[in-house]
């Protein structure tokens, strides 16, 4: 019998995804640019060999799949995807579906979707999260494309997706770039989550002078509470792991320079394009950039020294650690609220009709930001799908009120102690600006009118839109 689906690209993600597909009882044809990888993959497939058709040429590969053929392309993002699509196109027939499952920029996905429109072929842009483990045993899958093309692959995708209380973490989210956009924002939120954890770690390490193992204990305890999540869980694990070479905690031996591949930056760019603040993600992306300037930072420390406000002081260590837990929760709420607000604006801009409760639902398991917390977001959006901002839903408003005091105390202590907390501070700034009905932009409007005659609206609605600055502009 023919394969139900095909997959191109047997790298880390592709080979794990292929094994997952095969294991769930779906026959799959596989192809890789370098033939050796295909041979190695098949040789190591063990009991799953029966479900796998290894192919060494594109012709053989296409012929092995049942039409209309869904073909997952899981290769290096960018130009390689265009090259692979071009090489594939002439071998396909009407109705066949190319599925880009890599971390594409959604603008590329929109372009590819449109380019295939008149060819009779269809295109799906599919975000896959969960890393290697997720791909192998159950990722979270965010699909964009025509609904009809999704129905062709729904069964396979449902079988391989992660399950949260039995509910598969896969959904069709909208046309063209919707899936890759949502995956991008997922990654942006992931950047913010990771940065906020790193800042809290910094306070424990450099403020409270705790060892990696001790900090690991703190994260372990938090993972049993409201912060319960995959990222907190692995933070405990990495803090407790020893370096095989030196027997020191491994985190103490790792260089403090963070890499990035682009999805965080894209989130920030799109948020800015849409005019929606995503300050938590911005702070996180900027923090990774500063981290990479290791030599510059070391030179600057020699010239400027560390901030000299004196010792990091806390009166009650246990109470302060409780504050850190609540501060992290508050800041996390800010980052997620921003990410969802960006998606809501994009949904309008690109006519996607993104289903917010469903997005939160398919992030509850499989993906890197999976957590208990996303179940609470699912419930909040299910009750109020069109709410302006997550933080004004009743459940999250309560949570913000319960935790923002702790965030304020933690940010204050860190700032006075000279410890950098750009993401935590950004969340506090966001809450404090967003909840204040009368802000300070009146002065900005006055300045803009003064130097550029831009005009302003008045609080009393009177019909006088320029200030008395002289030169005939006044009321
Ligand atoms: P790998 O580096 O492990 O594999 C890269 C694959 O791309 C190989 O199969 C390689 O083939 C193929 N490839 C590279 N260039 C070309 C080309 N020009 N034409 C055809 N094939 C090409 O990458 P990953 O599996 O880690 O990542 C794949 C995609 O998944 C990326 O878009 C990545 O961003 C995304 N992703 C990765 C995650 C992860 O945790 N690693 C998580 C989620 C998404 P060959 O063997 O011939 O070199």
From TrEMBL:
Q: In which pathway does it act?
A: Carbohydrate degradation; pentose phosphate pathway; D-ribulose 5-phosphate from D-glucose 6-phosphate (oxidative stage): step 3/3
A GO molecular function assigned to this protein is: phosphogluconate dehydrogenase (decarboxylating) activity
Q: Where is the signal peptide?
A: none
Q: Where do the TM regions start and end?
A: none
Chemical reaction(s) catalysed: 6-phospho-D-gluconate + NADP(+) = D-ribulose 5-phosphate + CO2 + NADPH
Question: Does the record carry tRNA-binding as a key word?
Answer: no
Pfam families from the xrefs?
A: 6PGD, NAD_binding_2
What EC numbers are recorded for this enzyme? Answer: 1.1.1.44
SMART domains in the record: 6PGD
The keyword NADP belongs to this UniProt entry's keyword annotation: yes
Do you know which InterPro entries this protein is assigned to?
Answer: 6-PGluconate_DH-like_C_sf, 6PGD_dom2, 6PGDH_C, 6PGDH_Gnd/GntZ, 6PGDH_NADP-bd, 6PGdom_BS, NAD(P)-bd_dom_sf, Pgluconate_DH
Boundaries of every 6-phosphogluconate dehydrogenase C-terminal domain copy: 179-470
Q: Sorted alphabetically, which keywords does the UniProt record give?
A: Gluconate utilization, NADP, Oxidoreductase, Pentose shunt
Subunit structure, per the record?
A: Homodimer.
What this protein is reported to do is described as: Catalyzes the oxidative decarboxylation of 6-phosphogluconate to ribulose 5-phosphate and CO(2), with concomitant reduction of NADP to NADPH.
Per the record, the similarity remark reads:
Belongs to the 6-phosphogluconate dehydrogenase family.
In its UniProt entry, what is this protein called? Answer: 6-phosphogluconate dehydrogenase, decarboxylating
- What organism is recorded for this protein? Sinorhizobium numidicum
